[in-house]
Structures are given as C-alpha cells and as structure tokens.
Amino acid sequence: MKELEYLIEKYINGEITDKDLEELNHLLKSEENRAYFKKAVGLNYKLNLKYVNSHTEDKKAVFKGIKTRGSNVRDLKPRRRYLRIAAIMIVAMGTIFFYFFQKHNTLTNESKYVTIETESGATEVLKDNSFEIKTKTNEILVQQKGDTITYSSLSNKVAISKNVLSVPKGKKVVIALADGSVVHLNSGSKLTYPSGFKENETREVLLEGEGYFKVYHDEKRPFIVHSAQLDVEVLGTSFNFSAYKNNSYATAVLVQGKVAVKRPDKPTVYLQPGMMAKYSKSSDTFKTAEVDTNIYTAWMNGILVFEEQSLGDIANTLERKFNKRIIFEDESLKRERFTAKFENQSISKILESFKQSYDFEYHINDNEVIIR
C-alpha cells in the first residue's frame, strides 16, 4: 500500500515519471487499489475546485490524512456541508480521473514513438517500424521500413493533405518526400509537409528542430524550408538546418549547391558550399562564416560535436539525444563554453569529460540530470 500511496502522491503533484506511470497502471488492476485511487484523486480535484478553500489545510497534509490506515474521505473531517456538496462529485470525478489516467498513460507511452498527424486530426503511431498506406488498387502511397518513411510519386497525383511528422527525443528518422527530396530529422524535431506536391508550385515545408535536407533539383519549383527564425530557399542542394525553439540560435549550413537564407526585415544571405549562416535570437543578428560541414552533419552518424558552445545549449542537445531532462541548480553554469567531440558516449561519460575542464557536480536519475 505504501508504494501505491507514494505513486498517487507523485501523480497528484505532477511529479510522476513514465516508469512510475507504468507501475501505477499495473497496481490499478486491483479493484481495491482503483477505489483508493479514485478517492485520493477525487479529493484532490475537490481541493482544486476550492470546495474547501476556506480552510487552511495544505493539500499535502490533507493527502497525508487519506493515507491513515482505515481512513476514508469522511475521516478527514472538513466541514460537512462542503462534503455534502461535493460527495457525488468526488465519486464521479474519481471515475473521470481514472479514465483520464488511463488515457494519459497511453499518450505518454505513445510519445516514445514517431508519429504522423494528418490534416484530419488522425494520428498514426509508428510502433513496429512497418507502416503502409495503399490506394484502392493496392498501390503503395506511403511506406515505412525501419527508420525510413517513403512517399511514392503517386502521392503527387491523389488528394494532397498537410501532415506533421514528430520525432521523439532519443530517436532519428529519415523521410523521403513525394518529390524525391530526402530529409534526415534529428531527435525532438517536427516536420510539417504536404503528402504530395503540385506541378509548377513552390515546394514548402516547416521545420521545428534540426534536419539535413537533400533537395531534389527542380528549377520550376523552388523548395523552401520555413522555421520560426529563418527561411531557407533552394532549387536543389544539400544543407543542414537547425532551428530548435529552445536554442539561442538557428543555423543553416550548406554542403552542396546554393541557398538563400531569409528573415523578415533582414537582407537575404546567399551561401556557397562550406558556409554557414547563423542567426542569434538574443541580438537579432545574422553572421556568415566558412565552416567544416562535417561538424554540422555528424549527428546523422551518432556523433556529437560542440565548438565553443554554451553548456546551456549543449544541455539542450543532450536532452534530445538521451531523452532526459537536465536541470541546472546554478544557472551561471549554462554560460560556460566547451569544445568537444563524442562518438557513441553515454551521458555520464560526456558530463564527466566536461567536468575535467570545469568543476561542477551532477547527479543522474532515471529521467533527470541535476547539474550543480
């Protein structure tokens, strides 16, 4: 019972992990445990709705009361008139919360998988690395094999819809679009794209995160990658584009061909192979530089390369790669800068390496890293 009480308290306080959710779901197969869960969560809901807001009991203290052996809602003894008002609601909301928990648990598990959300609102969860969409005549429109999703050219000839491909932290995906362009998506990224492209119309996609693009050459149909920070326009080329929301910058690095990098109210920047355009969010400025493109495409081979990057931005990269939340107890540490390269190293080995250059402490839990 103590384990159940502990997990319910974490659930109510919003501190429960995916692993805890799985364990709680297992415990709730018991009818007795389900009843206990309904009572605890129902009481929490009542408190949040302020049925007992005129009282001074702390929520955790009230929850502690329910853990007393043999206690029930009435044993907590808030004023009876509040209990009469809320009595039916506690039972009803307990049931609703149990349903919500089951649904929440499913969604949490699904977040570990690559998903495709269609324009209709339906979501395909790609769990078993084998997914297909066929025409009525059994011709393949979309096919997944392993980590690669391919749209056939037939997709250009049927009804075109907007899709959102989401890549969870800890995973990478390759998508071949209907025009023949190929995009390697890094972990924690989203790509909004059409299922097909119309003739003589600009090809446009929206990126949140990081992707390496190999764009199929078509002079009549420019290819534009939009993001919240920058737009990159090409005819046919290969480039890496990084535009994560929580990074302090956005970069476009050209490997082959020619691209135009655009931002509203800024002059268009044209890149030649081996050049990078970097936009700083804090200063609202553009900079261009010659770079080693291998540094910016190494992530496709599981290699992490950092050049004079702040520990804050490095932490964002590690969060996505290892699917762990990183918390800084000392915010000033985020400003420290490092240059390093790691091939298939664990997060502990990476942090230990940084620790040799700058003295800090860290602690790794199941889903969390605390740096102090």
TrEMBL record:
Keywords: Membrane, Transmembrane, Transmembrane helix
Pfam families registered for this protein in UniProt: FecR, FecR_C
Annotated transmembrane regions: 82-101
Single GO term (MF): sigma factor antagonist activity
Regions annotated as coiled coil: none
Sequence ranges assigned to domain Protein FecR C-terminal in this UniProt record: 304-371
Domain FecR protein: start-end pairs: 165-259
Record has Lipoprotein as a keyword: no
Protein name (Swiss-Prot/TrEMBL): DUF4974 domain-containing protein
